[in-house]
Design brief:
This protein is of the alpha+beta class and 366 residues long. 35% of the residues lie in helices and 21% in strands. It is elongated. Bound molecules: zinc ion (ZN) (2 copies).
């Protein structure tokens, strides 16, 4: 496990406070789980942060009193009463900090949350805030990149070990479990997400869940998996064939088109390129090959404490990439009735260009 460097939480708090100042908000109420962990160091699953210019409060229930004291020395613990809820302490927290304009995470809090909170603290002006902490999380520091690198390595090794045991006749679910159990015996805390294994025509659905379908020799098998290690995630897709492909012309045309698109997009990554432009590199190449209608998702997404986070490599992101962004590059072609090919790597944007973190081989025949 990679240690969090000393002073990182105070420096993240300083960044949030600068953003609060710029947005003319007195404080931010943080309820989104990964944002809460990022800003406080807390690894539990329930709690609320109230961060103002001077104060940093952590509201927790009885289960987490001790954990907050241990993990979050930069925060003052506010104890929820036994059996009580966050709204029982919110008014007192607002009073302690003297805040009036209070930001909440509009992309996480529910409508019911905001109704309850504004009823508990009616004198506050509740301001919808979006993307403030996720924007900070998009740029990883050296310790985060080290953690992600370790998760990627573990995922790569576990996939290789599991594929060495993959055989025709196994079900998709059996292969998914083999991959997951191999990751866990290699030291993963968890699978980063439900592992997808889809054989033959099932692979035409980009996010088909593994089922009882048996693996067939010569059919494309799409495997999408990731490991969680040190609270950070990896994300890896490979498309493989057990033995030579049944329809070699079609398989190699599609496989090589996806691979060329992926390599071209990876080579184009650098600080300053927009998510949209990176997406276009792969999309144009797949379009020129005649498969533009069969690549219906974005090229990639950020990965960190969450499997899907900022920045997106898609038509919708016109912002430039920056050093420290960690993204996936995962073009795919999906043909109904035949199957799919997707190849996914993870990459970190560096000062001068890009480093591909994934080392899993791309030779599909096993
Ligand atoms: Zn994936
Ligand atoms: Zn992905």
């Amino acid at each position: 496990m990679v240690e969090r460097p000393n002073g990182i939480i105070p420096s993240r708090l300083a960044e949030v406070r600068e953003l609060l100042r710029q947005n003319e908000v007195d404080a931010l109420l943080v309820s989104q789980p990964e944002n809460r962990g990022y800003l406080s160091g807390f690894t539990g699953s329930t709690g609320w942060l109230l961060i103002s210019a001077e104060r940093a409060l952590f509201a927790a229930d009885f289960r987490y009193y001790e954990q907050v004291e241990l993990e979050c020395p930069d925060f003052e613990l506010v104890k929820l009463p036994f059996g009580g809820g966050f709204t029982d302490v919110l008014a007192a927290m607002v009073q302690q900090t003297g805040v009036r304009r209070l930001g909440f995470e509009a992309d996480h809090a529910t409508f019911a949350n905001v109704q309850d909170w504004s009823k508990a603290a009616p004198d506050c002006e509740w301001m919808a805030s979006k993307g403030l902490v996720t924007g900070l999380r998009a740029v990883k520091d050296a310790s985060e990149i080290a953690a992600i690198r370790a998760a990627v390595k573990l995922g790569d090794e576990a996939l290789a070990a599991a594929l060495a045991q993959a055989r025709p006749g196994m079900t998709e679910l059996e292969l998914a479990w083999l991959i997951e159990s191999t990751m866990r015996t290699h030291g993963a805390e968890a699978a980063a997400f439900e592992i997808l294994v889809s054989c033959g025509p099932n692979g035409a659905r980009p996010h088909a869940r593994a089922g009882e379908t048996r693996l067939v020799a010569g059919e494309p098998i799409v495997i999408d998996m990731g490991a969680r290690l040190g609270h950070y995630n990896s994300d890896l897709t490979r498309t493989v064939c057990l033995g030579q492909p049944n329809n070699p012309d079609k398989f190699w045309t599609i496989y090589n088109t996806v691979l060329r698109a992926q390599l071209a997009a990876e080579a184009a990554l650098r600080p300053g390129i927009t998510g949209k432009a990176a997406d276009a590199v792969a999309r144009d190449l797949i379009g020129e090959a005649g498969f533009g209608d069969y690549f219906g998702h974005g090229l990639g997404h950020g990965v960190g404490l969450a499997v899907h986070e900022e920045p997106r490599l898609s038509r919708l992101n016109e912002s430039p990439l920056a050093p420290g962004n960690v993204v996936t590059v995962e073009p795919g072609i999906y043909l109904p009735g035949w199957g799919g090919v997707r190849i996914e790597d993870m990459a970190v944007i560096t000062e001068n260009g890009v480093e591909i973190l994934t080392t899993a081989p791309k030779e599909p025949i096993i």
